[in-house]
Specification:
By secondary structure, the protein is of the alpha+beta class. The chain has helices at 14-24, 57-66, 77-81, 84-90, 100-107, 109-119, 132-138, 164-175, 240-262, 295-299, 307-314, 391-401, and strands at residues 5-11, 29-36, 47-49, 71-74, 95-96, 126-129, 144-149, 158-160, 187-191, 196-204, 209-211, 216-217, 220-222, 226-229, 234-237, 270-278, 282-288, 330-338, 346-350, 352-353, 360-364, 367-370, 373-378, 380-388, 405-406, 410-411. The strands form 7 sheets. Strands 12, 15, 18, 21, 24 and 26 form a 6-stranded antiparallel sheet that branches. It is globular and about 55 Å long.
Length: 426
């Protein structure tokens, strides 16, 4: 980067609000367009929303050429899985994100499992099958209690079953009722593991892989990890558990990925989201090929380094020259959601955020500006992130800010970050 650049960020969630917020802080950032963006991105300095369909790659391409855009940052998985990077790069547009083949680690769970097996990354025992009859045969085995739809299923395609009967019901939903369409033509059947989960994002330039700060998401809708799975109800960082297993994760997970990159068994640039489960040792549950949500909102406020330089380096094969520096603070992100989330969402409800919030950052997710007024526009509506030297203070900063925010049907979990050993009794 020789001069300040123009960036296009694709997406409209809390993740994209946090990306725009952090990128805009770079002295090398001239201007950002966020397509389509949300009510939060619309009001950030240096950032403008752009009302285009991000799945219309020709339109995105034309906009990048006309402007011209120096760097595109792709937020969500859908355009990645449909090959937006391939289309833009064919026209020499610089993009942070993997091509369609690299994104396969997210859009095919079978491919991801086979990759892990081939390169020796520890993960749950598994079989891949493509029919109800074959699934029925595999679930007769005691170990086979997790059924995952192979293709993208918006976080709804994983069934963690208590017994064979539940597994049978899941199999019928996938193969008989075809609840996931073609995404369910194949399934991965896995052994059920138990332990604590961690989210680790790692930047990658095709050769170098640099882990960011690990965080812990809270996927279930209700307190004490009850209720349906969601996209994430909140997260915190840093995570004590990661520190205890850092060496094993480095040796057993990150090094095999680095070796695969070197040997050409993996072609990838962008950010790799490594979903870990720690039992006696680390296991990889899944890969995503994009930033996590709400993990991104949780960790970016702790990043001291310039995010733009780091993302640019990923597109320039120069990540080895970047050192990510993190503050010693703790971060706690609480998602404010619609009370019918994850089944439903909220649209058009007036949101009021008083200006007296001091110790927390508020990122917008499902919000938009309608006639200049801020209204709800999704299931996860806002993310409140408390940052402070101690985890207990970060938790207090997030929760103390929530009474300053109001919309009809607002709901949230009261126990985000409270399972952390740094803060057992809050
Ligand atoms: P995934 O999308 O593969 O991460 O799965 C979603 C959630 O299902 C994970 O966050 C875990 O809570 C759970 N899960 C996935 N795979 C397994 C497994 N093999 N054993 C136990 N739980 C799992
Ligand atoms: N928070 C999990 C995800 O982004 O998929």
């Amino acid at each position: 980067m020789k001069k300040p650049v123009k960036i296009l960020v694709l997406g409209n969630g809390g993740r994209e609000n946090a990306l725009c917020w952090k990128l805009a802080q770079s002295p090398m950032c001239k201007e950002i367009y966020c397509a389509p963006g949300n009510g939060g991105t619309a009001s950030l300095d240096k950032v403008k929303n752009l009302d285009i369909d991000i799945l219309d790659f020709n339109l995105v391409n034309k906009f990048c050429k006309d402007e011209p855009i120096d760097l595109v940052v792709v937020g969500p998985e859908l355009p990645l899985s449909q090959g937006i990077v391939d289309v833009l790069e064919a026209d020499d547009i610089r993009v942070f994100g993997p091509d369609r083949q690299g994104a396969c680690l997210e859009w095919s769970k079978a491919y991801a499992k086979e990759f892990m097996e081939n390169v020796g990354i520890p993960s749950a025992k598994f079989e891949v099958v493509d029919s109800l009859t074959k699934t029925e045969a595999v679930i007769k085995n005691h170990w086979a209690r997790v059924i995952k739809v192979d293709g993208l299923a918006a976080g709804k395609g994983v069934f963690v079953c208590a017994d064979e009967k539940e597994a049978q019901e899941a199999a019928e939903k996938i193969f008989k009722q075809r609840a996931f369409g073609d995404a369910g033509n194949k399934v991965v059947i896995e052994e059920k593991l138990s332990g604590d989960e961690l989210s680790l994002l790692a930047l990658c330039d095709g050769t170098n892989l640099v882990p960011m700060l690990a965080s812990q998401d809270h996927k279930r809708r209700f307190e004490n990890d009850r209720g349906p799975n969601t996209g994430g109800m909140g997260a915190y960082a840093p995570v004590e558990l990661y520190k205890r297993h850092e060496k094993a994760i480095e040796e057993q997970v990150l090094n095999p990925i680095r070796k695969a990159l070197k040997e050409g068994k993996l072609v990838f640039k962008g950010v790799l989201f490594i979903g870990l489960l720690i039992s006696d040792k680390p296991h990889v549950l899944e890969f995503n090929t994009r930033f996590g949500d709400p993990e991104t909102q949780t960790i970016l406020p702790l990043l001291k380094s310039d995010l733009l330089e780091a993302l640019w380096a990923c597109t320039d094969k120069s990540l080895d020259k970047v050192k990510l520096e993190w503050s010693n603070n703790s971060s706690c992100c609480v998602c404010l959601v619609a009370d019918n989330y994850p089944e439903g969402s909220s649209k058009g409800q007036r949101i009021e955020i008083s200006s007296d919030i001091e110790d927390a950052v508020v990122f917008h997710a499902g919000t938009k500006l309608a006639d200049g007024k801020l209204v709800t526009n999704g299931g996860r509506v806002l993310n409140v992130v408390g940052v402070a030297p101690a985890m207990s203070e970060a938790i207090a900063a997030a929760y103390n800010a929530i009474p300053s925010i109001k919309f009809n049907g607002m709901a949230y979990r009261r126990d985000i970050a409270r399972r952390t050993s740094a803060c057992p009794s809050v």
